[in-house]
Structure formats: C-alpha cells, structure tokens
C-alpha cells in the first residue's frame, strides 16, 4: 500500500483553508471518467422496467449533472419501503455500480414485496473526478443535516422526505480505499488545519451500524451473505477497524445522525453502511460490485422476514 505524504501540497500546515486554497484545490481536479456514459446510460436501459425520476440537478460552472433515482414502478403504500444509496462519495466506484447491478439483476425479485427507492450516484461531479468531496471541498457524507452546505446531500434529503418515516431499511453503499490514506485523509487534515495522523486501511468488507440503534442480527445477516463473495475485514491489533472498536465480525458502529452521515436520513429501524475494499489483491472490481448487490439482497431478505413476522 502507498504511504501518506509528509505534508499536503495545498495550504499552510496548522491553518485551515480559505477561498484561495479551495480554489487551488479545485483547479487540480480533472475529469477522469464520464457520468453520462457509465451511469446515466445504464439507468436509461433500466427505464422499461422501473420508474426513473430526476430529483435534482447539480450545476457547477459549465458542468450540469441530473440526479436520477430509480423506484418501483407499481408503488404500493401497503408495502414497506427500502432505500438504497450509492456514490455519496463519488470515487467509491462499487457503491454506484453495485447499486445499479442490484437494480438490473435482482430488484424485480422484490417487486410485489417492497417499494424500492434507489439513488445510485448521489455525487456525480465527484464520480467523474474520482474524488470524495464536491467542488466546494465539502464531504457530502458529513453533510446530511438541515440547511446542508452540500447540494448533493440537500437534494437527496428532499427526495427521501416523503418516505423518511415509512422506510423499513436503508443501506448506503461505500468503499474504503488505499487513497483514503494517501490522499483524502491528508487533504481533510490540511483543509481543516489539523495534523494528519497516519492510520491503516482494512483489507476486506465491513459494515457500519448505528450506535444509537444497533441491529446486530441484521448486520450479521449481511456479513454472512457477503462472506460468500469476498473476504471480511479482520480487526487490527487493537480490535478496531479504522479506529473504531469491532463490535462483531466485520461490524463497527458510528453515531450516524450526529456525524451527518447518509445512513441517518430516514427513521428506518434497520440501517447499515457497506464498506468494500477494492484495492485488495484478493478482490476484483466484479467481486466488489457483486458484494454490494449481495449486501442489498441480504439486507432486504432479513428485514422482510422481520416485517412479515411482526
């Protein structure tokens, strides 16, 4: 794995960024792939089978990105609602393509059992630039709260508002990558004028539960299914994953709402955030996408069983 730089090339160590530093950072970002070719075209091919709606549009300079959501065509208010989100961090590729793979290959299996709402690429500008932040150097996944400074986050919250209290489950698809350690954590420290403390990147898949409402059996059902596709991240020598105590096999907990995380945007009793490790020598891109899709299926299967028994 690459090591982190001694200092970040933008800004003065110990001093938070101002407008000049943010502008310099933005000037370094370049388009590396196409949201239209890789995401929108896939969604278009799904239109014959699903409802597709534009729930917002991100206009950044000369770039304009429609935000698209996919939903069950025959919405039935008597059925529970399941929310799937991906690409909140645009560089986390399998979150986007795993969500699309789930819709393409599995969603119709649940057509008469749940209402599905899928936002596969919440941050298209960052998707194209393979970055964590939006153009304003804001992390959308720390911005899910009232009067959000991130347009991507605000648009998703508006989309979800009608089902916030009706959702049974929300699964948010993410990755933990080597570039978290070599680029994104050093950039965060530099942006905020704080020292960067090197850490480690776990080799494998893991989940983040809600410490305010943990659902350990739900998390383990997802872990058990994914373990058939790819390996689960072990705890480090401190029994932690990325600095958080491991509470069960492949599971850590965060206070989702307190941190403004995407998985906090509904009052669903079942919530989880997936973390795939695409840089592992033991995992291919296809495995990573499949792991995300399998996680969604396992999560839905578990909550449906609980809902039907209630």
Automatic annotation (TrEMBL):
<dbReference type="InterPro" id="IPR000834">
    <property type="entry name" value="Peptidase_M14"/>
</dbReference>
<protein>
    <submittedName>
        <fullName>M14 family metallocarboxypeptidase</fullName>
    </submittedName>
</protein>
<dbReference type="Pfam" id="PF24827">
    <property type="entry name" value="AstE_AspA_cat"/>
</dbReference>
<keyword id="KW-0862">Zinc</keyword>
<dbReference type="InterPro" id="IPR055438">
    <property type="entry name" value="AstE_AspA_cat"/>
</dbReference>
<keyword id="KW-0378">Hydrolase</keyword>
<feature type="domain" description="Peptidase M14">
    <location>
        <begin position="31"/>
        <end position="310"/>
    </location>
</feature>
<keyword id="KW-0479">Metal-binding</keyword>
<comment type="similarity">
    <text>Belongs to the peptidase M14 family.</text>
</comment>
């Amino acid at each position: 794995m690459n090591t982190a730089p001694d200092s970040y090339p933008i800004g003065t160590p110990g001093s938070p960024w101002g407008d000049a530093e943010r502008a310099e950072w933005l000037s370094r970002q370049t388009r590396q792939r196409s949201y239209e070719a890789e995401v929108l075209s896939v969604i278009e091919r799904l239109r014959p089978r699903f409802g597709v709606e534009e729930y917002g549009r991100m206009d950044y300079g000369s770039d304009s990105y429609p935000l698209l959501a996919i939903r069950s065509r025959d919405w039935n208010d008597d059925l529970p609602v399941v929310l799937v989100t991906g690409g909140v961090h645009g560089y986390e590729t399998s979150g986007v393509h795993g969500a699309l793979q789930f819709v393409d290959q599995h969603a119709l299996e649940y057509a008469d059992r749940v209402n599905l709402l899928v936002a596969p690429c919440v941050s298209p500008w960052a998707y194209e630039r393979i970055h964590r932040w939006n153009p304003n150097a804001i992390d959308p996944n720390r911005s899910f709260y009232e009067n959000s400074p991130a347009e991507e986050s605000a648009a998703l919250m508006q989309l979800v508002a009608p089902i916030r209290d009706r959702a049974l489950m929300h699964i948010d698809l993410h990755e933990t990558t080597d570039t978290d350690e070599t680029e994104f954590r050093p950039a965060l420290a530099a942006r905020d004028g704080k020292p960067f403390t090197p850490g480690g990147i776990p080799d494998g898949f893991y989940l983040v539960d809600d410490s305010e409402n943990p659902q350990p059996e739900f998390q383990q059902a997802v872990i058990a299914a994914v373990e058939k596709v790819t390996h689960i991240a072990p705890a480090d020598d401190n029994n932690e994953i990325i600095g958080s105590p491991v509470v069960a096999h492949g599971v850590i907990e965060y206070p989702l709402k307190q941190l403004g995380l995407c998985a906090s945007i509904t009052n669903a009793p079942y919530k989880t955030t997936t973390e795939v490790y695409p840089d592992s020598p033991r995992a291919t891109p296809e495995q990573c996408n499949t792991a995300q899709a399998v996680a969604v299926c396992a999560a839905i299967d578990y909550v449906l069983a609980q809902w039907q028994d209630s």
